[in-house]
Amino acid sequence: GDAKGKKIIGLADTHLYLKQKPPELRVTRSILGLSDDEVKFLETCEQGDALLVSDTYRIGLHLHASEEEHEFAKT
């Protein structure tokens, strides 16, 4: 529930959130107070897209792996 999520979030100042399914996203929204736009982003983002959250700052970004990183991830 929310208590466990808040405890996990409290372990670090910076978090990276990837695409989430509605049940998980409801908890994330509740804990972080995500805006409607941030929720929509996390519902529809593509592979490599993420929401970087640090304190009160939030930014959408795209992570691009090098060919070597991509090959490593596939193994």
What would your notes on this structure say?
With 75 residues, this protein is α+β, with helices and mostly antiparallel strands. It is 48% helix and 21% strand. The chain has a three-stranded antiparallel sheet with strand order 1-2-3, with helices on one face. A hairpin with a 2-residue loop joins β2 and β3 (57-62). The termini are far apart.
Helix percent band:
40-55%
How would a textbook summarize the main sheet?
3 strands, antiparallel
Number of helices: 4
Average pLDDT number: 87
Strand content: 15-25%
Structural class: alpha+beta
* Shape type: globular
Instruction: Tell how many strands the DSSP assignment holds.
Output: 3
Spatially, the strands of the biggest sheet line up as 1-2-3
Please compute the radius of gyration using only Cα atoms: 14 Å
The H-and-E topology, N to C, reads as HEHHEEH
Model regions low in confidence, pLDDT < 50 over at least 5 residues: none
Q: Cα distance, first to last residue?
A: 34 Å
